[in-house]
Structure prediction request, 370 residues.
Amino acid sequence: MPKVFSFKENYDESIIIYKMYLSSYIFGERDLILDFSKCSQVDVANFSFLNVCTRELQTFKDRYNWNLFNKTNKYIRCICSESNGLTNRYLNAFGYCDLDNKYKDGTRFLPLNLICGKGRCSFSENPKSIACRRIVDFVNASGEPFDVSLTSYSRNYLEGFLSEVLNNAEDHSLRNSEWYVNGISFNFKKNNTEVVEVNLAIINIGPSMYEGFEGTKFKNVDIYEKLERLFQIHKSQFSILKPFEREPLFMLYMLNEGISRLKYKDESRGNGTMNFIDSFISLGSFGEKNPAFSSTLNVISGHSVLTCDNKYKPFKNGEFRQISLNKEHDIRKLPDSDYVSYHNENFPGTILEARVYLNREHILEQINAI
Prediction:
């Protein structure tokens, strides 16, 4: 495993690791060892997708053994990090290995555990409803160290826009069903400040955001022409010091309210992802007060990563909410290049990755201000 196992910080090498992992399991003759001994930086998006790959490989093995007499007994084992407690907490929380006493550091954590789409589960109830309740319960339980909980209104609101996001994930998935959710929260102290770090990843496998939008351009003519005009405005601002690729810019346009590859089918399309971004950035508003705990939301799709945080968050422009990822709050201006990146490797789908920090004193201040 690489030293930095993160789509945001090490995109290409992370994708290559997955290719090696899948091909080694399918075509290799021995057990697999995931060696995290040198790994010093991880995130919930990578561990969640690793969890999905591991689950699918185990399903692949079970189906193989069911149909053939020559059965295989491959196993996946892990080696913990030699020095990084966070890596080992993820390994423990995601079920890859138990921690010896020398790896434990007193940090309390709460795993969400993998939730999968209807194509992978056989529930009598709609899996999206179950998933939304479990995610809201997870967020609510994450606040227990501070003796705070979500109100009934907040729970309903959170469940509502999570349902929109999962609907988007189904619409954009390979077989119109493949989506996964996972998360983990940590309660710890840093610089004499106690926080709960809440991490959540929502994954769908299929066309990237850009591929999906390009695939409907002849049906979604009005929206597509509007975004093409915006891209030409941005293109006129390119320079040697500030170049951009088409894909991440179109992804940025698509995050804005009222924009969707399926807008031609339903006028209400194009709000789910913006609601997700807006709500989680608001939930992590402690980052505005203390930049050491800035909320971060990454959108990972195809070759691109877009980042939203307490510095560049959604804003109201007339009747619509927008996000421009620049200090001017102007969608017609180029975004900050540190928040928009394009890479050689390709992720086959989309991941929404959120990290927010909760703090007791900040929560009480917000409650008293109401």
